[in-house]
């Protein structure tokens, strides 16, 4: 069954972002491991409840239906067999070696879609990590954040579970952002982020957006696979907001933030993506998951954390798009203040001097890594 197969519910995505951030953020992320262990245990205790209440079965049906809908939109035969990742393993080395996609038996997959969609990589989201220099306050509520950015399209589903109630977290706001295919973030103007003289990038909102979790604790986004930049592997940022409200201008209030963190992809998948255009026009040396200090030191070392998305190709080729999913457990009693150095206002993007109590690594500083 879905949740019982997880040995279960791994931790993860403790946050963080860009080397060069203040040492106190770095050590705070490391110290948060103990809190993660406690939260992981709470989430594991939720497994039976989630199973018995039908959340597992609904998740399988939901993922299968969404993948089929995306195939139809791309004129891909719905009954084509999917490929699937291998069994879950733990700690940094085993997660690096784990294939979250892999292959499956086509006959079994066609006979039972749950064979593909019943597995979850799970992440316990609660300790604060380094938010990074490129969080932008005030982004728009929307599900498609691509804004015509070129790259491999991703349909992402995330389901959020409150570990204190063992129920889906309804009405939370999932705030994501990632760089484009050549390693540049929208919404900021900074050394080491593309053309540092391009002030128009402040008004760019591509690959940033916010969605509210539904009655199943689920959000779905359309984005692109991020590229890479100096010192960091390919990754996606997330800030989770609770007790926030949508405003008339299409943004949200900050509310309470019980988590700041990151997600990753299999290195083998990244290698395939980086071979494609425009990813392969990036001349900066690729940092792998194994080399990335956030993936290893802060996210997976000494833990059972697996912050890597499960995924399937929608078609025969990666260029047909990817459907990916993850289940996240969050301790809603936690509360943090994300730092930011840029904000989207009614007049466009602007730099700020000390957003959220002191946005480290902001507008005029050095490279993000």
UniProtKB/TrEMBL annotation:
Residues 347-369 are annotated as: Disordered. Residues 354-369 have a biased composition (Gly residues). The keyword Glycoprotein does not apply. CDD domains: intradiol_dioxygenase_like. GO terms for molecular function: ferric iron binding; oxidoreductase activity, acting on single donors with incorporation of molecular oxygen, incorporation of two atoms of oxygen. Keywords: Signal. Residues 1-17 form the signal peptide. This is Intradiol ring-cleavage dioxygenases domain-containing protein. It comes from Pestalotiopsis fici (strain W106-1 / CGMCC3.15140). InterPro entries: Intradiol_dOase_C (IPR000627), Intradiol_dOase_core (IPR015889). It comes from the Eukaryota. Residues 141-234 form the Intradiol ring-cleavage dioxygenases domain. SUPFAM superfamilies: Aromatic compound dioxygenase.
